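Researcher: Here's a chain I'd like modeled. Treat it as a single chain, no partners, no ligands.
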Amino acid sequence: MSNSIIEKNVTDYMISENETSSNAMKAAENIMNFINNEQDVKTNLLNLIQSMGDYLIHEDDTIRSKSTSLLSYAITHCDQSKLTEETVGVLVNFYANRLSDYASVPNLMTGFIALTSKFDHFNTACTIKTIEGIINQVKVQAFLHITRNATFQVYENLLDYHSEDVKLVNDQFIRGFIRSIAGEKDPRNLMKVYTIIQKMIQLLDISRHVEDVFDATFCYFPITFRPPPDNPFGITAKDLKSNLRKCMASTPLFSKLALPLLLQKLSTTAGSAKKDALETITACAPVYGASEIIPIAGKLYDAIKIEIVNESADPALRDPALDAIHAVTKTMTSHVTASTNDSEVTQVLKPLIDDCINLLDELDESTVKPASLVLRSAASSSPFAYSVIESSIIPMLLRQYRDNEGMAERYLILCTMVAIIQARKIVFGPSTGNDKDVDLSHDSVLVSYKDRLIQIFSTAVKSSNEHPEVRLMGILGLGLLCVLKGYMKRNERGVCIQTLNSVLQTEEEEKLRMSVEMSLSEISSFDPELVAHITVPVLIQLLPDFTSSTSSQQEKNTENFVSYKLTLKTIQKLCTSSLLYQAIEPELLKKFLLICGHNDDKKYAVETISTLLNLIQSKDIAKHTDLKRSADTLLPQLIHAVISASLDNTADKKKTIIVSDEIMQIIYLIITIVVKNMNTIEQQDYIVQMFKLFKDNDLSILQIKSDTKFCPLLADAPDSQTVCTQMFSSIVSTLRKDVILPVESAESFLDDIVGESLKSSNEAQIASLSRITASLINKWKDDDSFKTYLDTLVTRLEDLVRAKSLSALLVYIWVAKALVTRSHKRGLLMTETIISWIPDPVFGKQSSSGFDVLIGDDPLCLNKQCFATVSFLHKQKFMAYSLPKLLHNFNAVQEEDGKLNYLIAIAYLLKNVPKSILIDELPPLVTLLIRSLSFPDAVLKLSTLELFEFALSEVTHVMEQHITTLLQAFTSLIGPNERSMKVRILALKCIELVCKNISRDIVLPHVRETLKAIAVPLDDKKRLVRKQAVECREAWYLIDQKK
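Model: Modeled as a single isolated chain. Structure tokens:
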């Protein structure tokens, strides 16, 4: 019975059109199912061979090959664990004996790949039989690249899985493999060949075949492969070069053969080939060792150095040449310590140093900078190399500095000094900040002349502004001395920091400030207390108390100092580490509150509090654990200041800058980030205090005394206290899911919040209270109590909306958002209800604008940072559900206002979905979006223009089809009839993107008309519009001039 099943499927396989046809694959799968499902896999497999007997020895090459393919498929997919060692031996012998059949070899190799990698009983005899069979019977290079690749895979499998057995025929394997790769050119196969050579060198003894293996490898050097334009192989020249380089650097046995040839390549090749030779020397030097490098090092230095110091040298070769010098020097000197005197190594280094000294003596930029690079590269290789070079170069540089007073010459001398100091830092590492590590000995020339070097660099820092390059070198040098390991005492470093601070006080040039900031940042990495003690007070002093009054005494005192904006930028870059942040936070907060106290410089206040926010955001991204401390240091003072301002009946709230929308949005974000960084227990304690403050109206917590009633959560609260409502909302919305609110029940608290929302007429307060409601509903576990409460709430809100309650609609939208975000089915049903309200003449526009809330990202709640339940792909699901309904309703409605409202909803939907979805959904909507630009609503225009701004950058092929109508729509929005400045600016940006991103052939016919239209906003009343119009016109002029 078993034979008949196998024979039937064998016949079906053999009569199929080819091996990959569906009939052939089905027959092969049937055979394998039978073989593996029966107990005796061995017998079944041998029965298969027996059933295929006539096919395997058929005189037709195609039939023999096809039958071999089926057998190899069976071997690959059979359960090898049920095969005995004897059976595996029979299969190997059978395959090895058939290797003389040229037509069958490609499919035989498939079987050998499986046998050599998957079969546990593939023993020593099998290994030797396979090697002998392939070597003696297969002329590998006579086959197509696929077969050659399969053969190389067999070789690799033998090394990976049977290397101990391969060692028994070590020489035969090596010779056979070398013969098999002779003439190989296919990049896919060469990648595998290079990998096998590396494994062969690692696992086998090639000592008797060094020259043969080397010749087989080096014959491909340098690689000149250029992939075709479509690169079907996915292999680059870089891949081949890298793998070949690994081969050449895989054994020191290659050194005597490789080094002379590499040296020859350096002198006879150019461009890419020379770069390849340099990179190969870099890779090989540490492997070949000092004994092989030292005898030829002088010649190597001469050949490599020319690529750095020669004025006509290829700039692309400079870095590879420097890397090669570093590698060669490191190989020679790593075994020598600075305390010993290895005359042989010193003798090799001396000519290189002498050549550099001669170049330095010229004091010409074309010679000094290359020589400095060479010295740094060599000196940074090892302590010994550094000691030799330092002792030769530093004294000479000090003499040069003394004898040359010209700034141009001193700049070049400083460049070399910095290079040597950089080398020391690379060799010995940066400072730990421990005075005990300071090297008090004078064995180091750099240590001996420490005071002199500090004085030189400090003088350079303080030099005239006419020589910024000298000042830059002074900053770099002084900063490096400060961070050298075992070099400076703490008090010395403090003096240097004061010198660096002087640049921050008076210098506005970006490069100089950036260099100082980098130096101070590195110092603060090991000694933040010193920077906090010396630099932070200076930075705070540079910030004026106010900037509006030019008559203030403080401004007179600081008129020679830099702009406060630059100081704030420096604070933002420098003060993110824990200790520096702790030092700057109270000072920056104090300055902010002082500015707000004047109530006359809102811009300065915004920039100051923004700096604090940026610092907090940087620390949050870096996951600093000390942010939670700000709940005790920063938040109480901020909340105190805001509440006090909201309760002050004597102040004009419109002029009280601390409660302005711009500043409060920043404060809300600060609160959110700080609360987010608390753990559950800390949040639990914190929310108890906040409920006492905001819900129970207990101002004593912050020691605030006021005759004004504080009731931010009540609908009758004064408008000035709305900011306090959102502060409380920011705190509650950021709570973790396991934090328990200090209330009798969540339902009763929600009822209170919803109730106040419905009674309120202040939209800002309604939004704040709705955020609380939405956050709690989003994080509420989906249990019976949740379902009951939700049903009641939704029904209540829907009834109120039908009764024309705008506040109920706003709350309803936020509740729907909470459910949509967690992909709750009720969220989509509520969305459908909102869509049905869009044509309503009373609140249709609010319903359509609600889509910005429904699907938009809110930084203050319902996001992962606030621990909300955010379902994967919820926006995609919302888009798929809502867009068809909106489009259908848009087409069905007749009233112009109804169409406008649906367009607003569609625009907000498209604006807020992921761009990857938008690319697919946009094409059929372009015409509709162009039409929406003709409606008078500015919000709709802005949303639509933002979509087109994205589309003109990402899906230009779609926009090309609508170029005429697009330009007509855009140009209609840039004239004086368009009231919104933002619309005019964004329309001009879109017009500019058309000429930059759309094909020139498509744009050319529209150049004249477009330039004529752009001429109108050139005279716009608003400067920002005129500026954008100039940029837009310039882009279109360039298109026109290319005719």
